[in-house]
Amino acid sequence: MDDSWPTSAAEALGGTGVDLHLDLPHGTPHGRRAALERALRDAVRGGRLAPGSRLPSSRRLAAETGLSRGTVKSAYDQLTAEGYLTARQGSGTVVADRPQGPSAPAPGRSAVPRAPRHDLRPGSPDVTSFPTSAWLRATRRVLSAAPSAAYDYGDPRGTAELRTALAGYLGRTRGVVAEPDRIVVVSGYVQGLSLLTGVLGGRGGRERGGPVVAMEDPGLPFHREVVRRAGGRVVPLPVDEWGAGACPREADAVVVTPAHQYPTGVTLHPARRHALTAWAREGGGLVVEDDYDGEFRYDRQPVGALQGTAPDQVVYLGTASKTLGPALRLGWMVLPPHLVAPVAEAKLYSDYHTGSVGQLALAELIADHAYDRHVRAARLRYRRRRDLLVARLTGEAPYPGVEVRGVAAGLHALLGLPQDGPDEAEVLRRAAALGLAVGALGEHWHAADDAVGPGPGRPQGLIVGYGTPGEGGYPAALDILTRVLGP
Amino acid sequence: MDDSWPTSAAEALGGTGVDLHLDLPHGTPHGRRAALERALRDAVRGGRLAPGSRLPSSRRLAAETGLSRGTVKSAYDQLTAEGYLTARQGSGTVVADRPQGPSAPAPGRSAVPRAPRHDLRPGSPDVTSFPTSAWLRATRRVLSAAPSAAYDYGDPRGTAELRTALAGYLGRTRGVVAEPDRIVVVSGYVQGLSLLTGVLGGRGGRERGGPVVAMEDPGLPFHREVVRRAGGRVVPLPVDEWGAGACPREADAVVVTPAHQYPTGVTLHPARRHALTAWAREGGGLVVEDDYDGEFRYDRQPVGALQGTAPDQVVYLGTASKTLGPALRLGWMVLPPHLVAPVAEAKLYSDYHTGSVGQLALAELIADHAYDRHVRAARLRYRRRRDLLVARLTGEAPYPGVEVRGVAAGLHALLGLPQDGPDEAEVLRRAAALGLAVGALGEHWHAADDAVGPGPGRPQGLIVGYGTPGEGGYPAALDILTRVLGP
Questions:
Q1: How large is the average pLDDT for residues A427-438?
Q2: pTM
Q3: By CA distance, what is B12's nearest residue in A?
């Protein structure tokens, strides 16, 4: 849900000069062997040991350095394995021939943008709660139990284990009609959306320049760009207080977030749900359901997935990004039967399949209910955070004109700004000055893609993500937020 | 390297009938709680417990079933978390409202193709040697040491840890010019090739219908299809005993396997290496180096990567698929600087980034040399297998006219068939009759894509992959092979 990425620091690799007399440190045998290897490697790379030059025998080098002969031999073996040295019958160890070419890497650039002191931007879950022990336990079980075939190329649709576990989980928790045969495991939502757009394009789409995909307005600009890059033409699907509105006639597909619209937080109204699936049934279009927040509903019973009411018209897309962590890159598509083969084929030709170890670990977590327990605990934590946010903004000292919306579910809220107050840009500036980063509604309008900016009269609002700050930092971030919104 | 995939068995999900009187098994409390949960879930799903119906109090159900009240309460909690039940203030636990829709999944189809008794098809490494303990150890270290930010969205180029480890490893073992800033981590070779084709297309390619990509003939048909699906136009690059020949003028890129051509096993001749990079320098074309077998060279010093001699013209592509296992879906591109940003962007919009836990585990393995040790041990094992193959086919009872080629490296050999003997199809039939699967040269010619088949006078040959059969099965597979080739 985040369309920026950090330019992470690149470490410089420049070799350090090492005397060929090999000034080795005292210390553990392992440490000294490593130092010897490093010194030899640097000498070869730096050209001080030319290709073909003969190295001292292990016996002699051992005597000269005070290392054991075994240590020297191990170091020689390692560098031979690495291709620096070569053992020649009868002539001992010599420096290997290596291809010439520029070899001194340039020092890396370091350009890490400064992180904000208080981060209430939406898009990321609370990764401090990633269940490292449970994940490790599941991985251990996978690695000790999986047959060796599990390490070979796998099924592009995903492992049978995960598809079976997901079928059960999605059926019982989200009301998804999800036999394993309808599921294709993907590496997150972006990939699912991209593959699907490609498949729609390959099937003719609208012929005239790719399939037409209607996407919520406002919605995430990053996802619009994913569709465009995969060959789709994006048209707006206006969102009001009932959620996504009427589907454009010409659309081949509509992409919606029924459980908790992003960014407005609206839940799709039953009448609109019906209208969407009727549109798909009548015109043969496809509904794509992005269930990114489906697990985190606080105030009412979970709203079942739209897919459950029209499994042959709706593609259900879910991920472990919000429940566990985005870094796993694990997602799933539940497809109408006629789309399973084309999507699996698109997956095959784009990256063969998603890594199996992670898939199997997730299947373990789901099968033994650790996943349910984790989701339940996360839901409680997020609910408490949500409650705190609502209490701070609507409590004894309400902020005139600021409306807190979309808080029945998920990890973000929309704060509607008063018409007569400062606009989004002004509020963001105030926040930044106090070290607070927060999202703005403005960048989510389709018009924003053309840098036109929100049209006149469009509502102004902040998007507050409450998943991110650590437990310690959250109240402080809210303090700043209330100062920014205050008079 | 394998373009088929198993249609794996899909498990049927059909619920089993459970009496509402809940006939629970004796056994551990955990087992009985699980049985209670299952029974309730099935009852709700099957409609025997209708939405809104009230469940007995935990006290009463405990008394009726002989379970402890705590066990019953836990089961209720679990099903409430899953959305089946809901706890209503004052009216106890009731069955939740759930969306209507078809909910009984069809029984899964099971269509697993029968595996051959003896498998000498190329494309897979010896996955029985996957280093499960080392991988688990590395994963444990990652999960206990990584900061929580490691579980959030990451850099589309890959983690700094893995790019740094790869830079060192590829520099010292393959002579690759590989600062971390030049590297983009991908989910295997297929993805690297696909992204690159897309980037060439986006840069205008040849305008007229996508970039022109010259690919070795013979070569892997699967990879040609990857390029086509990503919008490329494939033209043949003929291979002779020196490897890939002259680059077509009109090509935007050429894809080659310099270390060990697939499927002929030829090593690219120095003169040809020079011609390739000269072509790229003069015409501005790009060379894509598929180093799939670079680590497994047996008879001579490793042949350094082509990239090391022309790092601004060559894209180096390597993976952990042959060294560890294809299921990890871990690969890397080392790019000319001007291509790093476009490739990282293409990666971002196609799947954001490759899963971080696997990346970090591989970085650990490389940093502590466990990766080197594993590769060295694998090289010894494969070399012994290669030696056995050569001994069986060229030893005391040679097979007239059968030439064993391409065995200086890698996991496969080309067996040239005599002009006057039975043709490929006939030999494959004989092999299949004895339960042996083996590859054929014929399907690798570009003409084969059009189902024209190999042209007249084209050499005939078998591709024997010796990575796959388990240590126990390999000699038996060779027995069958010699029978098939014998008179």
A1: 94
A2: 0.79
A3: A179
